Amino acid sequence: MSGDRGDDGYSLTEIFAIKFVLADVIIVAALLFAGPLYAVAITALLVVSVFLVWYLTERAGGADESEPTRESVDPVTELQRRYAAGELSEAEFERKLERLLDADERAERAGLETRELSLERERS
């Protein structure tokens, strides 16, 4: 499914799909066992909760996208930044860059997908 996926969670689309399936089950159960008034009340609460989840997700998502985190910057770009800032000598930069490229090549040979060096792949 599409949507923003965290490394350890569900995408926003999957969350809404799960929520709607569970909501349908709860509403049908309320209609069968409690009556139509309870079913309408539960439906209203579920609709409000969907809008609340959407609002909070949008609000949290906007804050995350405005400023890139250290995890979102690939290692090659981070090395370039450190070299430009004078934190690394040319020899250190070359050695660390070579290690990153070797690690990426080993991962490719092993069949693992790596996004860390996407800049290098785009240039090739």
UniProtKB/TrEMBL annotation:
Pfam families assigned: SHOCT
Listed InterPro entries: SHOCT
SHOCT domain span: 74-101
The organism of origin for this protein: Natronococcus jeotgali DSM 18795
Keywords per UniProt: Membrane, Transmembrane, Transmembrane helix
Transmembrane segments: 12-32
Record protein name field: SHOCT domain-containing protein
Top-level division of the source organism's lineage: Archaea
